[in-house]
Prior knowledge:
- The structure is a single chain.
- This protein is an alpha/beta fold.
- The chain folds into three domains: 16-103, Immunoglobulins (Immunoglobulin-like, Sandwich), CATH 2.60.40.10; 130-415, Glycosidases (TIM Barrel, Alpha-Beta Barrel), CATH 3.20.20; 422-504, Immunoglobulin-like (Sandwich).
- It has an eight-stranded mixed sheet with strand order 1-3-6-5-4-7-8-2, with helices on one face.
- Strand 10 and strand 11 (128-129) form a beta hairpin.
- The chain is globular.
- Mean pLDDT is 95; it is low at 1-15.
Amino acid sequence: xxxxxxxxxxxxxxxxxxxxxxxxxxxxxxxxxxxxxxxxxxxxxxxxxxxxxxxxxxxxxxxxxxxxxxxxxxxxxxxxxxxxxxxxxxxxxxxxxxxxxxxxxxxxxxxxxxxxxxxxxxxxxxxxxxxxxxxxxxxxxxxxxxxxxxxxxxxxxxxxxxxxxxxxxxxxxxxxxxxxxxxxxxxxxxxxxxxxxxxxxxxxxxxxxxxxxxxxxxxxxxxxxxxxxxxxxxxxxxxxxxxxxxxxxxxxxxxxxxxxxxxxxxxxxxxxxxxxxxxxxxxxxxxxxxxxxxxxxxxxxxxxxxxxxxxxxxxxxxxxxxxxxxxxxxxxxxxxxxxxxxxxxxxxxxxxxxxxxxxxxxxxxxxxxxxxxxxxxxxxxxxxxxxxxxxxxxxxxxxxxxxxxxxxxxxxxxxxxxxxxxxxxxxxxxxxxxxxxxxxxxxxxxxxxxxxxxxxxxxxxxxxxxxxxxxxxxxxxxxxxxxxxxxxxxxxxxxxxxxxxxxxxx
Length: 506
């Protein structure tokens, strides 16, 4: 009998379930199972769990996390009592049952970001979300010291979205090898695409969670063309295996977005049908329907595809956001409009002033704009493939430009508005300036690089307003004396980057 008890104890220990009994709404409930890892557990073992909360039912795929551990991650979207039961072709992982309590979200946990009212975004609890993003393509592949420096910079609150690659990147100023590789095998020559390296993906998860703690969305780039390892030339079967694996691992993180590609049209190994397939696969397999986009190089993708949630584009004409809104009926995000910097490539040598100007012009035309920084500091200047400079756009670290504080200033202005702002079509076609409004309560005009001494402002005759003069570069807000209605000639300081904020007096 003692021997039988001992055997049962060992058996239960080996095939035990590790899971918490309480979880916050929109946080991660994780089940860890010990199981047999003979053969290839990444491809031989199927694992999922059915989670039930009254009429709320979710079926979530699991994944192999190495060292004989299988995991299932679940993001509950409803409070109350949940139960689950696992399903697997591996007997030791099958029909494992459990229950847990989901309690209400607290503090700064507002859930995942979704599309709101056609052209905007909001968190799951309806708190408005306005993307003010940046780009650090390869920051997760640079080691902990530089990653901590990046996070320290991000803690200043300039941005609330980060574009980042899942695969490592090969490009000028990014020629170092990553510390980890996504697959088992011999680097550069002989990968086993059926066996993932869990440590590689654990590192990315760590960074996703760290971004979430700062209130930053992780816009994960699934594929990109800048590759010397062969990861962008995998076949359809391998691509699907990879996509299913990252969905199983990452989808339970509430701050995840899916970007099918950076510059999809430069990936010559992929055709339009491949991208359509990937978008469909994410839509079908992601239990939480995270945001989905695809970023272009020279040619826009067909953003009318209903499975694409928002328009992510590379184009410097941010003032055309109004036109794209009308065409696609989706949120417009200029994820790349050139970068502040001083490199030889024209996409990376904007002044700080022009970077800020592009943000403002995008916002007052109903769009959202993303930041990047590409400064080199070595003297003498070196070729990009030889340089040891650490550029924010690629590796992160610290920002040395001038635009980030001004972007934060604009972000605070937009987030303090009474509601979502709608671009107004100017009936006076000869007037080149744009503005956005919230009902008849709030107007934001922007005059770009022009330097008027005055502007005519038309307001409802029967309402009274206060007016403030904003300088987008100096980051100043100056009240104009008086109350205003009807037609007004407002004196301005004759400086570029001037804006007017007009607020109804309640």
